[in-house]
TrEMBL record:
The lineage of its organism: Eukaryota, Viridiplantae, Streptophyta, Embryophyta, Tracheophyta. SMART domains: CRAL_TRIO_N, SEC14. Residues 79-239 form the CRAL-TRIO domain. It comes from the Eukaryota. It holds the Pfam family CRAL_TRIO. SUPFAM superfamilies: CRAL/TRIO domain, CRAL/TRIO N-terminal domain. This is CRAL-TRIO domain-containing protein. It comes from Eutrema salsugineum.
């Protein structure tokens, strides 16, 4: 019989009391004053096995230290034209908050091209958004709600998904692995909208490979998902691609960049980019901001992740062959 969740948290907390001094700053940046919720996330990610959760958390802290993740919010991507190009090809943003106060993260899976910069720039940008979410957005939401807000909702827009996405599998594997191993259990629910045939065909093969707790988090919604999403958030928090049927996740919409949370001109990205530039000035004193991407070591994907992406790659190739026939 397994131990209770309270006992597992207690055991893991005791193990973490002996964490090396060099890792303590990273640990503080991870838990942001809520260590119990953090321990809970790592325990969930390792099915309540205390020793495996402890190993995972220590490896996460070591990865952060070795790659200077705690300093990544002091390293803006410059010049701004390069960052704008990244924002236009890596479609991610925060559109608002759910009725329970959770940040709503929108991701334009189908129309992200990842073709305006090197892999390292896209990974740097992704990690910066993760860190800004964890160090700024979630603490702010916690303060506003008067209770710990440690997770978010994600809405994945599949509009425009094509077989050419196969070329992005390696980058997506790296980003997903970084999230799985170093930012586990940060997403409460994944809502998938604007689903084309290519996704439906792949989903039937991928779904059986997912762990049960992951399956429970994923909801594939009809059309743009507006009716279902309005049950958990106000209209103002809906991503632009969910506001009307057939709108898609186009980069240009009727209200320009005001409502498009993917755009650098959106309030979320303006706040993020200005924050990183400000932190660079504070931490770097009078030294000029250095050009060039941050090189982060990509962790090896776990067995489940490898199997999923190999299967996805295989399915895309099959669909491509079927189209040729």
């Amino acid at each position: 019989m397994g131990i209770s969740s309270e006992e597992a948290i207690k055991q893991l907390r005791t193990l973490m009391e002996d964490v090396d001094e060099s890792l303590r700053e990273s640990y503080r940046n991870i838990h942001q004053g809520y260590p119990t919720e953090t321990l809970l996330r790592f325990l969930k990610a390792r099915d309540w096995n205390v020793q495996k959760a402890h190993k995972m958390l220590l490896e996460c802290l070591e990865w952060r230290t070795q790659n200077e993740i705690d300093k990544i919010l002091t390293k803006p991507i410059v010049p701004v034209d390069l960052y704008r190009a990244i924002r236009e090809s890596q479609l991610v943003g925060i559109s608002g908050y759910s009725k329970e106060g959770l940040p709503v993260i929108a991701i334009g899976v189908g129309l992200s091209t990842y073709d305006k910069a090197s892999v390292h720039y896209y990974v740097q940008s992704h990690i910066q958004m993760n860190e800004f979410r964890d160090r700024v957005v979630l603490p702010s939401a916690t303060k506003k709600q008067g209770r710990p807000i440690c997770t978010c909702l994600k809405i994945l827009d599949m509009s425009g998904l094509k077989l050419s996405a196969l070329s992005q599998i390696k980058l997506m594997t790296a980003i997903t692995t970084i999230d799985d191993l170093n930012y586990p259990e940060k997403t409460e629910t994944y809502y998938i909208v604007n689903v084309p045939y290519i996704f439906s065909a792949c989903w039937k093969t991928i779904k059986p490979l997912l762990q049960e707790r992951t399956k429970k988090k994923i909801q594939v919604l009809k059309g743009c998902g507006k009716d279902e999403l309005l049950k958990i958030m106000d209209y103002e928090s809906l991503p632009h691609f969910c506001r009307r049927e057939g709108s898609g996740s186009g980069r240009h919409i009727s209200n320009g960049t005001v409502d498009n949370c993917f755009s650098l001109d959106h309030s979320f990205h303006q706040e993020l980019y200005n924050y990183v530039k400000q932190q660079a000035l504070v931490k770097g004193s009078s030294a000029p901001i250095r050009h060039g991407s941050v090189h982060v070591r990509f962790p090896e994907p776990d067995t489940e992740g490898t199997k999923i992406f190999d299967t996805l790659e295989s399915e895309f190739q099959k669909l491509g062959n079927d189209q040729k026939v």
